[in-house]
Write a structure and sequence with these properties.
- The chain is 50% helix and 4% strand.
- By secondary structure, the protein is mainly α.
- A hairpin with an 8-residue loop joins strand 1 and strand 2.
- It has 18 helices and 8 strands.
- The N and C termini lie far apart (46 Å).
- It has a two-stranded antiparallel ribbon with strand order 1-2.
Length: 480
Amino acid sequence: MKTKINRLWIVLGLAVSLTACSDFLEVDVKGKATIPSFLSDPQGLKAGLTGTYNKMYAYVDNEFTKYGDVAGNMVSLPSASSGDMVAQYNFTSDESQVTGAVGYIWRKIYVTQANANNIIEYGPSVADNYPAQREQCNRIVGEALLIRAMCHFDQCRAYAQPYNYTADASHLGVPVLLRTPGANDTPARATVKQVYDQVLSDLEQASALLTDDVATSRFYGSLQAVNCMFSRVYLYMEDWENALRYAKLAIGSQQLAQGDDYLGMFDDLNKPGEAIFRLSGNKMSGYLKTFYENSCLPADTLLSLFDASDLRLHLLRDASGSKRCRKYSATTVPDGEPKRDDPFLFRLSEEYLNAAEAASQLGQYAETRRYIRAIIERAVGTEKADAVMAATTDAQLLQLVRRERVKELCFEGHNFFDLTRWKQPLVREQSTTSVVRYMAYPNDRFVLPIPQDELFANTSMQPNPTVNATDKNRLVVLED
């Protein structure tokens, strides 16, 4: 019974805040009555949205982003025997890991979803009751729809195989939760197609409520961010036409950040750079800085991809030249908060890469070259970019785009998910500290186990094969 209560507390919790705190109401009779009361006016909706962003920060600025890197092939953990995310690095995740990545990613995303659901449920009536503030209320609901779409998508990426794992995406995804479940509800896992259909539906609704084609604030969802999310989702679905279409909408007439402006958006959190949507770490304890500075280093396989003059190497080495990720090592931080991280959700470079990948899959090679050249030229200059493009045939463009994507988005939680959607094996450096140097695609271990607490609490929840096996001896055999 305790396990079931804990699960319902997680799913039903509402993050509320009047001053950016992240407390949330526990599920009891009083709590159930408080949620609609709290979200009964525009001020309450706004505070609820702040709380929702705080809850989203909790999963993005910790285990979820780390997982997308440590399960991939471009980072190295100095110690593979103990420490943060080691189980995911070694592919020995255990369903009983309640206070680690397995339990936290699941639980934190559920909490964020619950907050978004409450705003989506009560927001329209608030708009009706306060017609003079309808535009503000609609915007808040639009942002909540974007967040809910991202929650379903991210949870599905972590606990389910990629969309193209089966021809019709009929394999198991995650539950689709559009409302706060009741105490006796036992939501089952939807298919991945059903999850993605809901994600697209939420984005369509959000696009009707948000109007800023270019984000007016990088810390809030916008129509530009919705278009970014559309492009990312369609890329995973291999719907190349829509992936390209929405990437172009997100890019608009904007140009990539160059030189010091590019490096500055990582080093000075006051500078927006090319940020479209990033989460504010104001008054939050960030966890990515310490992890990427000390516990998760660039692998030789990553560093070997770069030209010696590549601008991006400034983000992968410290002042002494040692391997070090500096994407979370800002030296200028608002209010002097030493632990602050502002993780990116979307930035312009990803949209250029999305456009290039989709265009190459469509055989639109001139478009591919235009977008990927911009990324390369920014990194190594015009002369070297000319040489790279001249040496690359149309048939080799997709490989070039993928390589640039790895270099550009490393340490931002994309690597492992890109590998699986590309249906590529995991191949790590010879000197990897992990027990896993190679794993073939497809692989049951390319997803996290469903948390044991969730399986015990919810009789409708189905486990993942192999990783949820009752046999606890999960040591992965090193493959040559």
